[in-house]
Amino acid sequence: MNAKARTARRILRDRTRTQRAAARITRHGVGTLAIHCVAAGLGIREARTVASSLRKNAAKANVAGTPGTSYTNGRARTCTRYTRAEVARIAVIYRPRKPAYQIAAARLTLAA
Predict the structure, then answer these.
(1) Which is it for the CA torsion 70, 88, 51, 63, positive or negative?
(2) pLDDT tens for residues 76-112?
């Protein structure tokens, strides 16, 4: 596989991940903070990082979310799901330093 094909596959994989996350939020109306970050265009690892920072800011924004259970790889984990409007309220408070995270925060704010 040459470099051009590798790049094309990576772009397609990233775009697919983002679209699936956005469709999931649209379908259910709520999603975890990590899913909202993936829908904003971040990768999985970066989404987890931003989501943990947003979780800290959720208390400051006085946003509770909806408790739920997330099922993955045969195990159940408790999670909190948020609407787009709630995530936008949290993202307004979030002040990242990394440029990619700043773009994601802006997208999360505008998503509501």
Answers:
(1) negative
(2) 999 999 999 999 999 999 999 999 899 999 999 998 7
